[in-house]
UniProtKB/TrEMBL annotation:
Pfam families: HGTP_anticodon (PF03129), tRNA-synt_2b (PF00587). It is an enzyme of class 6 (ligase). Keywords: Aminoacyl-tRNA synthetase, ATP-binding, Cytoplasm, Ligase, Nucleotide-binding, Protein biosynthesis. This is Proline--tRNA ligase. Its EC number is 6.1.1.15. Homodimer. Belongs to the class-II aminoacyl-tRNA synthetase family. ProS type 2 subfamily.
């Protein structure tokens, strides 16, 4: 993309309404625009990161064997009356009346609708296990929407639902989700710690929230410091293997890690004092096992091996997709702007032309742009007729992890400059080598000369 043709409405001033750094940078970098309280338009740069996050989630869901679907945002109240949640959900639910005076609502979550799909088609234990998921907009009429996309009223969520014959099978689905989420967040450059949590309006005794530690987080958390040393990393996992998934769950949940809702001073006292940590965290996901709560209410039954009709065991599993942009920025920024992890960056690198209009500099930038693009990478080429200082400030603000700087002086010596946004370190090297380095970082193969 050439910056001169892009739509990147960068703000010079810090918007007064933004209280936390991620909200400030998302507004200043032209990623989102508030449409009304807690409701945002996604501008090109923000939308691009949202899509990257979605892509990672889809890939990891596929790896775990989960199947994508799409359910509507507007639902009839009838199913919610069947489950008893129409009244129970309270004022957070946006209620809508259609022209025929029918009660509708904007989905805050989708246990009822997905259970209705299941009960309409699935009759036998032979069709289990089954996990369906979607990535879809949700609406919760939060009393205090704030911090930009962190606590929106309209927000984007991955919500998945497992259907299993037995509690044991459903607990495997729970463990599988935990493993899959660990991988998912790490690919986004995040450490998200599973913590024992509270079921809230979704329900269920088994539930973990995934928290990213950050001073601006809304939850107070208590954990054993050993937990931050754990990494999922590159390990191979067979998601159908019950023991493997169970082992990962035990590894990541055996140490004390709880939100304030489940914090227990008596158990906490057993954690060695020098390992006790209290911090703030951002909840980027939650998994639940709630048994037959919805299947019994909505009569979602299958025939088991003995011919008996039994309600299926279920759980649901959510990722705060739009909230993740805020969480990633909270975890990765400096005083100049955002620092995107390579896994979610909107463009793979920036190209800054120090002297637009200089034949050699223009030609070198065009060549870099063409070569990187041919490799399947997306560079953002700042081809505007602007001062170098302004171009650097924009690149730093929007946070691309790598920048190639091209100027007449360097080109005389046959070099360009490659700069890491994270460390600020620069290196001079020939343009072909800069391309090779970027290709290597992103794991794309270069054709042999
Ligand atoms: N049905 C279950 C799992 S699919 C569910 O709704 N879980 S949830 O309530 O925990 O939401 C899932 C995730 O959505 C949360 O972990 C959080 O990251 C995100 N989320 C919840 N409310 C908001 C909000 N108001 N703004 C932004 N993200 C939110």
């Amino acid at each position: 993309m050439r910056l001169s043709r892009y739509f990147l409405p960068v703000l010079k001033e810090t918007p007064a309404e933004a209280q936390i750094v991620s909200h400030r940078y998302m507004l200043r970098a032209g990623m989102i625009k508030q449409a009304s309280a807690g409701i945002y338009s996604w501008l090109p740069l923000g939308f691009k990161v949202l899509r990257k996050i979605e892509d990672i989630i889809h890939e990891e869901q596929a790896r775990a064997g989960h199947i994508p679907i799409q359910m509507p945002t507007i639902q009839s109240a009838d199913l919610w009356r069947e489950s008893g949640r129409y009244d129970a959900y309270g004022q957070e639910m946006l209620r809508i009346t259609d022209r025929h005076d029918r009660d509708m609502l904007f989905t805050p979550t989708a246990e009822e609708l997905v259970t209705d799909i299941f009960r309409s088609y699935v009759r036998s234990y032979k069709d289990l296990p089954l996990t369906l998921y979607q990535i879809q907009w949700k609406f919760r009429d939060e009393i205090r929407p704030r911090f930009g996309v962190m606590r929106g009223r309209e927000f984007y969520m991955k919500d998945g639902y497992n259907f299993d014959l037995t509690k044991e099978d459903a607990l495997h689905a729970y463990n599988r989700h935990l493993v899959s989420y660990l991988r998912t967040y790490e690919r986004m450059g995040l450490q998200a710690i599973p913590m024992r949590a509270d079921g809230g309006p979704i329900g269920g005794d088994y539930t973990h929230e995934f928290l990213v530690l950050a001073d601006t987080g809304e939850s107070e958390v208590f954990y054993d410091s050993e937990i931050t040393d754990l990494k999922f990393g590159e390990r191979e996992i067979d998601f159908d293997n019950v023991d493997q998934c169970q082992a990962v769950l035990e590894e990541f949940t055996s140490r004390y890690a709880r939100t304030d809702e489940t914090h227990d001073e008596a158990v906490w006292a057993d954690v060695p004092a020098d390992r006790q940590r209290t911090a703030r965290g951002i909840e980027v996901g939650q998994i639940f096992y709630f048994g037959t709560k919805y299947s019994e209410a909505l009569n979602a039954v299958v025939q088991d091996q003995t011919g008996a009709q039994v309600p299926v065991h279920m759980g649901s599993h959510g990722i705060g997709v739009s909230r993740l942009l805020g969480a990633i920025i909270e975890a990765s920024h400096d005083d100049k702007g955002i620092i995107w992890p390579e896994g979610v960056t909107p463009f793979h690198c920036g190209i800054v032309n120090l002297k637009q209009g200089d034949d050699e500099a223009d030609a070198a930038c065009e060549a870099l742009y063409a070569t990187l693009t041919a490799l399947g990478l997306e560079p953002l080429y700042d081809d505007r007729n602007e001062r170098a200082g302004g171009k650097f400030a924009t690149m730093d603000l929007i946070g691309l992890p790598w920048r190639i700087t091209v100027g007449p002086r360097g080109l005389k010596n046959g070099v360009v400059e490659l700069t890491s946004r994270r460390t600020g370190e620069s290196e001079e090297l020939p343009p072909e080598q800069a391309v090779a380095r970027i290709a290597e970082i992103y794991g794309v193969a270069q054709a042999q000369e």
